[in-house]
């Protein structure tokens, strides 16, 4: 079976002329069906740009992205952003329903699908609430439920837990881990957090400082299903140290670039 996502020679430049900024690439990355891939790298290296190119939200300046749509009756992909991106004037239930409405799914057919995801993400008792009444963690659950309700083959997640406090972040990691281990859809997960990447991912892709390219890939050796207790093992700590050793110089290069730009 072909790879689910194929990124070939992708580059992205913002602006033109002397003000042009090369944000990404050339980038090559293949992701298998059902694989959970975490992408890490310095701030500004193009991680979010890569995700948006895969999602089709911005076009690449060069190169191409090929997606394998296994069942044309299903939704190919959904995206979860850091800032929740849910509508403040819609209730929790209406926000979760949105993707199904866009697909033209009738209310009778959509109802059990919506209720199932509200139940799985602990939102059933908040179905009539509006986003401004919810905590950050609850709002992000709404965003994930909306993305999952359409049963996408690919789930793209752009630092979805970055805005949460440390405790909420741990809870959301546990919930996402449990959700993914139930149906194992293809996930591309952008994060700054190495601990998070190792816990969640089958593979950790390390990007260089801008313009971002792949400098290394680490296969996460820990069997599934996983639990958060994995963090306490020496093997986990050793892998985190190995990835950080690779990433440290890229972060330093980014800082030097910023200092030169500000000089």
Automatic annotation (TrEMBL):
Molecular function terms from GO: ATP binding; ATP hydrolysis activity
Stored InterPro entries: AAA+_ATPase (IPR003593), ABC_transporter-like_ATP-bd (IPR003439), ABC_transporter-like_CS (IPR017871), ABC_transporter_ATP-bind (IPR050166), P-loop_NTPase (IPR027417)
Record keywords: ATP-binding, Nucleotide-binding, Transport
Pfam families xref list: ABC_tran (PF00005)
Residue ranges annotated for the ABC transporter domain, each copy included: 5-234
Protein name: Nitrate ABC transporter ATP-binding protein
């Amino acid at each position: 079976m072909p790879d689910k996502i194929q990124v070939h020679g992708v580059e992205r430049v913002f602006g033109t002329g002397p003000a042009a900024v090369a944000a990404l690439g050339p980038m090559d990355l293949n992701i298998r069906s059902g694989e959970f891939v975490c992408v890490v790298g310095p701030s500004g290296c193009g991680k979010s740009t890569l995700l948006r190119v895969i999602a089709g939200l911005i076009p690449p300046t060069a190169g191409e992205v090929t997606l394998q749509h296994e069942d044309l009756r299903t939704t190919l992909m959904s995206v979860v952003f850091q800032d929740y991106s849910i509508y403040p004037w819609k209730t929790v239930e209406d926000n979760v329903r949105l993707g199904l409405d866009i697909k033209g799914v009738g209310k009778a057919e959509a109802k059990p699908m919506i209720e199932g995801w509200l139940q799985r993400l602990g939102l059933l008792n908040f179905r009539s609430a509006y986003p401004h009444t919810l905590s950050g963690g609850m709002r992000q659950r709404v965003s994930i439920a909306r993305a999952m309700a359409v049963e996408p083959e690919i789930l793209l997640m752009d630092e979805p837990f970055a805005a949460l406090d440390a405790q909420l972040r741990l809870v959301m990691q546990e919930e996402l881990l449990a959700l993914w281990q139930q149906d194992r859809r293809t996930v591309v997960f952008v994060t700054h957090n190495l601990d998070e990447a190792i816990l969640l991912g089958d593979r950790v892709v390390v990007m260089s400082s801008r313009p971002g390219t792949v400098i290394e890939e680490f296969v996460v050796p820990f069997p599934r299903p996983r639990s958060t207790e994995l963090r306490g093992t020496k093997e986990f700590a050793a892998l985190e140290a190995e990835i950080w050793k690779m990433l440290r110089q890229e972060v330093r290069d980014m800082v030097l670039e910023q200092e030169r730009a500000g000089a």
